[in-house]
């Protein structure tokens, strides 16, 4: 492999290499016309060569940008490599972007070419063409509905291939020359980050940064040419570029594209990938679906299911991690595998998964453990666009639900004084395109990148990410206060919907809590407790008891972690209304608007930091029909037991 | 539960249109066929092979035949017995008069003759449907049986009218004895099994090809079938021909490999009903159902007659016969009400359950 | 030549040579035909009212007769035996409606047909289980003397049967035309929806019509049974009724009568005069082949309505 | 698919494809159609409209051979025809029905495959062993059918038994089956009956797409006047079995007799 690193230092070279050593093995698949149409590495190489020549013939040159807009399609992936062959830079964009967003990216990137998936995307481009003087050629993959489009700048993919073939017969050495002429330090791809604030930034990566990172991780995890992966996440996202492109080229495995975004679940099931990435949200939804579907099963089946799931909870993870487990437990687990876990994994399309990743946000430990306990090797990683994904990966055999693992191969990590995570390594990006200030803000001269995330290492050297660095504060006694970390811990309880924690420049930590109407309502119904509204439900003493138990459990967990042990929740209250985007309390993407809430409910906050047992509040609410109204309530404030630092750990050890 | 289909994706139409696209099923069927060929002759005794497996397989062939006509093409027939008889008598004629032909050829010739007869009695199906057609097939049932018993040519002027089947080798005078009283039960069983397996395979193939689709099209909606260019008469007659071929082969095998003589009583109207029941209970429009139905209907009376013994009860034989009638009647009604697609559908449902396991749907 | 002679000359010569004998054969056939007619009548009733092709009609004849003769042999007076048997047949009708027809409502006709085959098997099993399989002579006092019309010998019992059949037809005709229930039955035959709209529960109609068919079966069984004894072969005449229906049409009561007579007379005459040529026993298939021929030329039968297929 | 695409560069509409001359159809004493004449040109979308019972469906049934007219002739591709439905299919006429006429016991895929019946020539022996020609034909035609499935966007119901599909999808499958025949003339009998607005829009789009992509001539019966006026090149109006008007949508909708007989009536 090491000789390969030197000789195959760009993706086109790697493609050529794969076309030689695993010519007949499948490189790409797409569910189309009812079956999984396949292309071997040799075929892909041939097609990409024609395509690259065609692009060149149409006027694409080294350094030019070619935008890619659409869902995961083989031809869109080939556009990446074809552009790279001639030294042009592919710029994938999000397929669901509106025309204006696309216009911004293409304009900023100075895209000369654009490859569009279908009529929908072509329409967006044509719509914005007047504002994009640099855009010369629009290619499209699926010609459906485009028959009557006779603009001269529109090119059908097939026509480009045709042109490429022609060009190659006249210049037979062209492709080889192009490929050999590039090196690893050339720009490979530009990925626009959909930053939460401000305009997207174009992250420029070289072949080296993407390829070495991809290969390192592939070697670490033992990915090989027999692996299967389903490409269903946006091409513009760095993860897809690594999992469905970079690592496929590096390890030689096949990438499969689903039939459409509606059929992903079924396609996943058919394909049965061995290597699978999904954000926590997907795993969570999947688990919910499993539980809901099981509700409809017969009594006996349900009992069997829960019996074996409980057993998996007990020993499943240990078995997966190869720890010693008693023979009886093993036999029982084997039976469970036959009756529950195996069929379940099969039904989810995950039965062949050797390696699953999740990242992006915190995953609930229950959810994470659920998948691991039924034998799916799910791991968390921590990454970013600027790192070509991998910063840390959970090590095999040392997986803990609340850490993101140890540094990826060749990656170094350090923490700033404020607790911010910094990394350096082969995957560090080159620059933000046309944005030297941001580049300088993010990347130091000696190649360290600031992630903007606050974290710390636990005693086993595994990184824990606790919050965005800018949100992390300090209690008056100097203890670290990471609101999101605390809130997430609480939100993992099904009964808790939303939490807002306070503590920055205060004496202790306190919280507003929203209960989950569905979960708690369900519980109330089952126990014959009547309630008329959310407000009433949230004020019930029994509900307070439950939430208090959750808070105290969270405190116990916090107490085991040295860095955050001081920020246990002393006092909390249950809000009388759901935090709502309509009232400006949440963003449209359901993120808590901390400052606004602090202002709006300052009375409550003051009460939390006094010794009051109750507090009256009157708030304006917006009803669903747009009417406004007043809501008044007298809220109970409770004290929660905290655990002495270290005592929690001792208690845990004693269990 | 036992299915692991994730990752079994198809990269070509050939694979997607295969017979058993789920590997589990494929292995199961291969295993079953292997057992039928190797295991069964080893473990089965004279009674099991000779008195159960052989007749069940033969009846399954006839049931497949009727299923092609009734289950796939939607044409009701009450003349199965007569078409079986046609096969038996013609196979006998060929085997005795053209003795240079190997016996499998004689049996196939019986099927061929039956196919011709089937076409003849299928002609009315162009103009009539349902019960009316049932009458036409009843005419075949009574007329043909009368013909074979009253025209001595068919039995080579045998005085008893029930000629015995000689012992034939597989190929004229080469190979093991496969028919007649001297043939070993294993040889006869394997001989019948080969026919059953190949005919089942052929039926499945036809069912998934053009011809099967045109049968089903005629069955489901003949008017719509016509507008897409399906010729009704041609399609119905092809169903009659192929159906009768299967019945004819079954009839010939019955005479050659099971009862060792050409006995008209074996092909009476009761036989026609018996086979009709097999496909109703087994499953209309299902090859698998033909086998399940044949086994079920054939084994039911045997089980019923053994049952009191197993339970230590003393029930007179004639009571059991009456019970058999009652149980049969109730079962037919039960299946029509509860599962009109028969055992094959139950099997399907069970399979779906296993595929969805642990989810209920 | 000889064959043509045997087929087209000799039989007719024989007929003209012995006209009285022919008359005798013909009346014998017609009388058998009356039995077919009665069975066919049961079919038509049920088919008209419920669209069900009742294969079990033949077995119902056997079942009714078995009960009747069984009760009489057990010492029950004839009238009482008749009443009890009718009650049993009504109960059977109820059971069939409840356990067969109702669960299968709106199913295809062919499915219902097959269900009645199930009913036939069940009733046969039950009947023979209770009353045994022996042939039971039945004597209900039908005169069985013979008398002569010219040289033709006529059995009084046959004549009696004919009168009963005629009487039955008249009663049924009156019932259909002059009673509310009868009119409702006709309405159902024409249009199920219409029948529902005039407020008659379909279930009741089915029970009634199956009961009536049960009654017809009983009468048929008594007639046939007093002639040949009550035995299993009674159920086989159900199959003979099929060609009768083809001839007469599935929905026509007069058709059933006329069809029965034609088949009965036809097969007797054919057997006596042409049977020898064919090798005998052509009675077994004559009716079916005749029906088959009919199907080619007049598929709707003699009295049936023309079926127009709408696209 | 490309071989199916019509050469539409020089004008979509060509010469006469079908002509109906003086057709009179009687059922017993009832006249269903009286002396109807009109023609259909290659490549056009021709609508037949009229109030209920005007004889529209009868007209289609005459064209594809279900009914035999007592008088008059039908000429298709210049040839005098008086054919049975299966021969009509052979000569290139496909149709859909007002009441869906799918094969209920079969899957979507199999239903559409039946549309390829006429393109398959393998003998039954070849089919029985699923070898050689039969297998080749099955696979080739499957590939063709998949194109149509893709075209009509019914991938997700490929293997679903059609009986379980909702109404709108069944209509689409029926259209797919007709398209699988690669017809020159496609008769659509109320393709949008009973559909909601969205489904109607979809169906309209498919009809236009079919007409444009495959160059298929379409004869359409439809109740929704908006749809008819949008889609059609020419419209013929029937009333009580007689022809009332014939011409472009504009001409027809301004014709007084049509307004009186049909448009005036609230629909």
UniProtKB/TrEMBL annotation, chain A:
Record-linked Pfam families: AMP-binding, AMP-binding_C_3
Please list the residue ranges annotated as the AMP-dependent synthetase/ligase domain. 17-433
Enumerate the PROSITE patterns for this protein: AMP_BINDING
**Keyword flag Magnesium:** no
InterPro entries with a match to the protein in the record: AMP-binding_CS, AMP-dep_synth/lig_dom, ANL_N_sf
Entry's Gene Ontology molecular function annotations: ATP binding; long-chain fatty acid-CoA ligase activity
> Which controlled-vocabulary keywords does the entry list?
ATP-binding, Nucleotide-binding
Per the record, its GO cellular-component terms are:
membrane
Q: State if Nucleotide-binding is listed as a keyword.
A: yes
Protein name as it appears in the record: Long-chain acyl-CoA synthetase
What species was this sequence derived from?
Aestuariispira insulae
Q: What is the lineage of its organism?
A: Bacteria, Pseudomonadati, Pseudomonadota, Alphaproteobacteria, Rhodospirillales
UniProtKB/TrEMBL annotation, chain B:
Q: Tell me which UniProt keywords the record has, alphabetically.
A: Cell membrane, Membrane, Transmembrane, Transmembrane helix
Q: In which broad location class does this protein mainly occur, judging by the first location in its UniProt entry?
A: membrane
Which compartment or compartments is the protein found in? Cell membrane
Q: Name one GO cellular component term.
A: plasma membrane
So where does this one cross the membrane?
27-43, 49-69, 76-95, 101-123, 130-149, 187-207, 275-299, 319-338
InterPro entries xref list: ABC_transp_permease, LivM-like
A Pfam family annotated for this UniProt entry: BPD_transp_2
Q: Which domain of life is it from?
A: Bacteria
The protein's name in its UniProt record? Amino acid/amide ABC transporter membrane protein 2 (HAAT family)
Species this protein is from: Aestuariispira insulae
TrEMBL record, chain C:
Q: Where in the cell is it found?
A: Cell membrane
Keywords per UniProt: Amino-acid transport, Cell membrane, Membrane, Transmembrane, Transmembrane helix, Transport
Q: Name one GO molecular function term.
A: transmembrane transporter activity
User: Could you tell me which InterPro entries the record lists for this protein?
Assistant: ABC_transp_permease, BCAA_transport_permease
Annotated Gene Ontology cellular component terms: plasma membrane
Q: Does the keyword Zinc-finger apply?
A: no
Q: How does it sit in the membrane?
A: Multi-pass membrane protein
Q: Name one GO biological process term.
A: amino acid transport
Grouped into one coarse class, the protein's main location is membrane
Q: Which residues form the signal peptide?
A: none
Asked whether the UniProt record includes Lipid biosynthesis among its keywords, one would answer no
TM helices/strands, residue ranges:
20-45, 52-72, 78-101, 110-131, 159-178, 205-224, 244-265, 272-297
Q: Which family does it belong to?
A: Belongs to the binding-protein-dependent transport system permease family. LivHM subfamily.
Q: What is this protein called?
A: Amino acid/amide ABC transporter membrane protein 1 (HAAT family)
Instruction: State the organism of origin.
Output: Aestuariispira insulae
UniProtKB/TrEMBL annotation, chain D:
Q: Does the keyword Phosphoprotein apply?
A: no
Single GO cellular component annotation? plasma membrane
Q: Which InterPro entries match?
A: AAA+_ATPase (IPR003593), ABC_AA/LPS_Transport (IPR051120), ABC_transporter-like_ATP-bd (IPR003439), BCA_ABC_TP_C (IPR032823), P-loop_NTPase (IPR027417)
PROSITE patterns xrefs: ABC_TRANSPORTER_2
This chain's protein is named: Amino acid/amide ABC transporter ATP-binding protein 1 (HAAT family)
Q: Name one Pfam family in it.
A: BCA_ABC_TP_C
Secretion signal span = none
Organism superkingdom: Bacteria
Which keywords does this chain's UniProt record carry? ATP-binding, Nucleotide-binding, Transport
Q: Sorted alphabetically, which PANTHER family does this protein's record hold?
A: ABC TRANSPORTER ATP-BINDING PROTEIN, CONSERVED COMPONENT OF ABC TRANSPORTER FOR NATURAL AMINO ACIDS-RELATED
Q: Which GO terms describe its molecular function?
A: ATP binding; ATP hydrolysis activity
SUPFAM superfamilies assigned to the protein according to its UniProt record, in alphabetical order: P-loop containing nucleoside triphosphate hydrolases
- The record places domain ABC transporter at 18-265
